[in-house]
Amino acid sequence: MRIDLHTHSDRSDGTDSPTELVENAARAGLDVVALTDHDATVGWDEAQAAADRVGVRLVKGLEISTQLQGKSVHLLGYEVDPTHGPLLAELQRVLDGRDNRLPLILERLGALGIEVTAEDVARWSGNAAASGRPHVADALVEKGVVANRDEAFDTLLKPGRPAYVDRYAAPLHEAVRLVREAGGVAVVAHPWSRGSDRVMTPDAVAELAGLGLAGLEVDHNDHDEDQRARLRALAADLDLAVTGSSDYHGTGKIGFPLGCHTTDPEQLERLLPGVLA
Questions:
Q1: pLDDT (average), residues 182-205
Q2: In the chain, what are the domains?
Q3: Which pLDDT value is given to residue 194?
Q4: Mind listing the pLDDT tens digit for each residue in 48-85?
Q5: HEC sequence for the chain
């Protein structure tokens, strides 16, 4: 059984519609796929209809933008109640932060002599719950400023680059609590990618486990073999589930194909008992 627990559609910064994502998951030989758009659940119904049609088991999830000690950390929440008021309020605050910083990013690009309008970005954000940096990157590609999203981030949009603007992210400990209160299961996404290992220390992970964190996403393209081995050992020490996934974004992230990393069925059963029944 092949299980991929981290993917994105065009309801956030992926390029597939929820239907296309599920259809592509079936073509990739996946039996189970989780849709985990950033800070939003708006693609769930469409994805479920497609999953029912093609015979793939859908796990409904989201990836919450959080921060710990000023460092970005992403939290996967699976099978939360999408009507849970406190969680919805926090997600809306995150989404508003994305939208509200867009004019500031465009202003900084303009100061660099790069003219991109909100309308240019909107052509790429389309059905997304909010306009984010990946959509700005797509507009920059369209205008020939950069070759792809990676170049846009590396030269202009990531922290420390001239067009970067910070935004609100939920406190990590609070996000774990909200996911649990909403009836869901919390797993830290790629916990040691992009320098997050500086704050996601073994002691920090142990504290999160005490608050109800259920697992770590260990097998991910952003982790090298040594990191995976050490994260696997840490998960074992803390009795946390271990997951693996693609972090698929369609054509929005090259080299992250569906099913490039997968989750053992026993680990999924630990996280979501009965999900495979």
A1: 96
A2: 3-90+168-271 (3.20.20.140), 102-157 (1.10.150.650)
A3: 86
A4: 999 999 999 999 999 999 999 999 999 999 999 999 99
A5: CCEEEEECCCCCCCCCCHHHHHHHHHHCCCCEEEEEEECCCCCHHHHHHHHHHHCCEEEEEEEEEEEECCEEEEEEEECCCCCCHHHHHHHHHHHHHHHHHHHHHHHHHHHCCCCCCHHHHHHHHCCCCCCCHHHHHHHHHHCCCCCCHHHHHHHHHCCCCCCCCCCCCEEHHHHHHHHHHCCCEEEEECCCCCCHHHCCCHHHHHHHHHHCCCEEEEECCCCCHHHHHHHHHHHHHHCCEEEECCCECHHHCCCCCCCCCCCCHHHHHHHCCCCCC
